[in-house]
């Protein structure tokens, strides 16, 4: 682009201005001429209050010094950080949705030797009801419930039915050493479990593990919601009454237990893009478990709830690099892509289940022909002629 110093702005040109002018007047004048104005950088006096919009800075009052402004034709598309992030994330989500599949035949976890006393029971601890905290927790969970379109997300309780499903999954996968906290805040207990967790190396526990404990202490899920497995304390925190969400986090515990270097694997999966790997592995494990046990409710919940949550979790890292409203927009876009991918999977699986059911019903209703040979005693004697009563009377008359 051509640069003009202290000159009027033209379409498709950049302006390098060393004077001061009213930015709002400049923008309004250029937009009235069917132009798009993109402010690349401005220097603002300390006395000027600014209001940030997704693409520009507008002064509430006073003058600003324009360092560099690009004036482009309205028909020319200008890439922004938000659009680039959305396109990149959408491509990643489509790739994951297209490659994700159930882990069939399903392999249960076995992490304790035969000589060890593997626990066949799962320990649950529940937080005590606190009216004030519960009301705050309900309010903070509105956004997550809206994104997932499910009222049981961040409900801060666990029904007996979903509890039994979680217990069955954890016992089948030898996860009896994992503590399950339901709507509970216990920093002291978590610090103790951090010290006692020998599965994770000392260095990882007292570095990244301390950071995870600080996050747990200062930003408790008891208030802010969220379901997660902490590999450094070997604790599964549940705040949603959705079986598929609980199993998805328990699948991460199974994945951690199966790794030869669980600490390094856990740290690696803290990064935004890399965490897609562990989410995909967990979803495939849950789907394989549900299909093996013919549990359509868990499989359906995975498509309807877990898929959108994965989309939102994936955009968490990118949302910090842009303004607040753009970050919310990216989260909505991620959840929307997750819902779309889940609906496609539901349609495909429903058609497969219907075809399988029709084939089974057809097999049950089909009568098989008995081709076994007749027993010798039931066969008529050779050379004997059998007459009916009518035939025998006719012979006698003759």
Describe it.
The protein contains 16 helices and eleven strands. Strand 5 and strand 6 form a beta hairpin. The chain has 398 residues and is an alpha/beta fold. The relative contact order is 0.10. The model is unreliable at 1-82 and 394-398 (pLDDT under 50). The strands form three sheets. Strands 1, 2, 3, 4 and 7 form a five-stranded mixed beta sheet that branches.
Given the helix and strand composition, which structural class is it?
alpha/beta
Fraction in beta strands = 5-15%
The tally of helices reads 16
Largest sheet composition: 5 strands, mixed
Global outline: globular
Binned, the helix content reads 40-55%
Number of strand segments: 11
Mean model confidence by pLDDT: 75
- Nearest-angstrom radius of gyration? 33 Å
Distance between the amino and carboxyl termini: 125 Å
Instruction: Please trace the helix and strand order, writing H or E for each element.
Output: EEEHEEEEHEHHHEHHHHEEHHHHHHH
Which consecutive residue ranges, at least 5 long each, have pLDDT under 50? 1-82, 394-398
């Amino acid at each position: 682009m051509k640069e003009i110093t202290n000159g009027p702005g033209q379409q498709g040109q950049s302006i390098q201005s060393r004077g001061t002018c009213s930015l709002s007047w400049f923008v309004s004048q250029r937009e009235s001429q069917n132009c798009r104005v993109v402010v690349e950088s401005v220097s603002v006096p300390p006395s000027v209050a600014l209001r940030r919009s997704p693409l520009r800075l507008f002064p509430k009052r006073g003058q600003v010094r324009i360092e560099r402004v690009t004036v482009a034709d309205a028909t020319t598309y200008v890439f922004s950080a938000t659009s680039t992030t959305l396109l990149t994330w959408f491509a990643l989500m489509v790739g994951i949705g297209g490659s994700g599949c159930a882990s069939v035949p399903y392999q249960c976890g076995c992490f304790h030797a035969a000589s060890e006393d593997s626990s066949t029971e799962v320990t649950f601890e529940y937080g005590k009801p606190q009216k004030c905290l519960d009301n705050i927790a309900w309010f903070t969970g509105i956004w997550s419930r809206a994104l997932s379109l499910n009222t049981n997300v961040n409900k801060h309780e666990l029904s007996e039915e979903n509890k039994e499903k979680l217990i069955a999954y954890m016992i089948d996968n030898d996860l009896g050493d994992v503590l399950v906290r339901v709507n509970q805040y216990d920093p002291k207990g978590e610090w103790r479990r951090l010290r006692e967790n020998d599965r994770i190396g000392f260095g990882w526990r007292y570095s990244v593990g301390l950071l995870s404990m600080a996050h747990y202490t200062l930003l408790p899920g008891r208030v802010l919601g969220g379901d997660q497995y902490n590999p450094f304390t070997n604790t599964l925190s549940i705040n949603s009454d959705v079986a598929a969400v609980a199993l998805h986090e328990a699948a991460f515990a199974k994945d951690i237990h199966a790794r030869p270097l669980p600490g390094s694997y856990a740290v690696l999966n803290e990064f935004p893009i890399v965490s897609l790997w562990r989410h995909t592995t967990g979803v495939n494990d849950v789907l394989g478990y549900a299909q093996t046990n013919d549990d359509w409710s868990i499989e359906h919940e995975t498509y309807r709830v877990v898929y959108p949550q994965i989309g939102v979790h994936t955009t968490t890292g990118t949302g910090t690099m842009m303004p607040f409203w753009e970050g919310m927009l990216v989260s909505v876009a991620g959840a929307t892509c997750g819902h779309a991918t889940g609906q496609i999977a539901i349609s495909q699986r429903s058609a497969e289940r219907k075809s399988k059911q029709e084939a089974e019903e057809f097999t049950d209703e089909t009568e098989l022909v008995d081709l076994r040979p007749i027993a010798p005693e039931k066969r008529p004697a050779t050379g004997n002629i059998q007459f009916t009563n009518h035939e025998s009377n006719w012979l006698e008359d003759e």
